[in-house]
Design a protein that fits this description.
Order of helices and strands: HHHHH
Largest sheet: none
Helix content: 55-70%
Shape: elongated
Bound molecules: zinc ion
Oligomer: single chain
Distance between the termini: 37 Å
Number of helices: 5
């Protein structure tokens, strides 16, 4: 029986893909948990400190936030890819419904968009 998945299933070991995605998901969760802990020295800020100290702290905090939101974006893609594995649409583009090239999935198993749609979404 022909199905849109047959090409993807033939080229990829979906069980291995799922294991890989779950491992990445767990690693990201750990890093996000570490980042979301309140800063230990935060309570001291704003009183009796030179401006330079607070600025450095603020910049490092901003970097943490930027890293955190990019980790969250990665995690959202992984969660979506796992949902697609579960509902049988893994390997099909969320944008156009076309097949995502197998080499792209092998390089980045969390891909939920084909190359064309990913470029347009940027
Ligand atoms: Zn597409």
């Amino acid at each position: 029986m022909a199905s849109p998945r047959s090409g993807v299933g033939a080229a990829l070991d979906l069980d291995a893909v799922e294991r890989e995605l779950r491992a990445r998901d767990a690693a990201l969760r750990e890093r996000l948990t570490a980042l979301s802990r309140p800063p230990e020295r935060g309570a001291e800020l704003g009183f009796g400190k030179r401006i330079g100290d607070g600025t450095t702290e603020a910049v490092s905090r901003l970097n943490d936030v930027a890293v955190g939101s990019s980790l969250e974006a990665s995690q959202a893609r992984i969660t979506r890819a796992l949902a697609k594995l579960a509902d049988g649409s893994y390997g099909l583009c969320d944008g156009c419904g076309g097949a995502i090239a197998a080499p792209r999935l092998q390089a980045a198993p969390e891909s939920v968009l084909c190359i064309e749609c990913a470029r347009l979404a940027r």
